[in-house]
Design a protein that fits this description.
Strand content: 25-35%
Number of helices: 3
Strand order of the largest sheet: 5-4-8-9-1-2-3-7-6
Low-confidence stretches: 47-66
Distance between the termini: 22 Å
Order of helices and strands: HHEEHEEEEEEEEE
Largest sheet: 9 strands, antiparallel
Structural class: mainly beta
Helix content: 10-25%
């Protein structure tokens, strides 16, 4: 099977200093290291509503007299980015807090509120690791750190599943490790 990114893998054909701003944007939004994840409401939430997640109207819980309903999460998509991958580091010159040293770093720049009570997991087959660090950045993205020591990847691994959850919604995204090659090496 041919890579869907084979025609546009400028990251393997050009030096990072020569990448255009459009190429950097492509790398951060439509590349093997940037995939779409669906934001799914928790069971019991209105899956078909177009209402954005917002504070409760009237300050009460649903079912109470004179109060508005619980807010709902509209089904939407977000970009999930493997930010610790070398091509992203080369393009964006990102530095991470010290808590993220020796961690895979996965970020979601457009994660809807609430950004509290979050959990996250990274899984390869039956092996998985929970996020050891979670932080909201100055740009309001949320980054998750997963120990490289607890879940080492090999060039022969095929797929990794990222999942995160709050009390209101969950996000799940797949990364194809076979596509995540940078100058012939697995780049995570």
């Amino acid at each position: 099977m041919t890579s869907m990114f084979a025609a546009s893998d400028f990251w393997n054909r050009k030096e990072p200093a020569t990448w255009s701003s459009d190429e950097v944007l492509e790398l951060a939004t439509r590349s093997p290291w940037a995939t779409r994840g669906r934001v799914l409401p928790k069971p019991g939430r209105d899956r078909g509503s177009s209402q954005p997640l917002a504070p409760e109207v009237g300050g009460g819980r649903s079912g109470g007299r004179g109060t508005g309903p619980d807010p709902v999460v509209a089904v939407q998509e977000v970009t999930v980015i493997w930010e610790s991958a070398q091509p992203l580091l080369d393009a964006l010159k990102t530095s991470f807090p010290s808590d993220f040293a020796n961690h895979y770093v996965i970020g979601i720049p457009d994660l809807p509120p609430p950004r509290t009570n979050m959990t996250a997991n990274l899984a390869r087959g039956s092996d998985s690791v929970d996020a050891g660090a979670i932080e909201t950045t100055r740009s309001h993205a949320v980054i998750f750190g997963f120990s490289k020591e607890l879940l080492p990847f090999r060039a022969t691994d095929k797929e990794v599943i990222f999942s995160m959850a709050t009390d209101r919604y969950s996000v799940r995204a797949r990364f194809n490790l076979k596509e995540m090659r940078y100058h012939g090496m697995l780049a995570v």
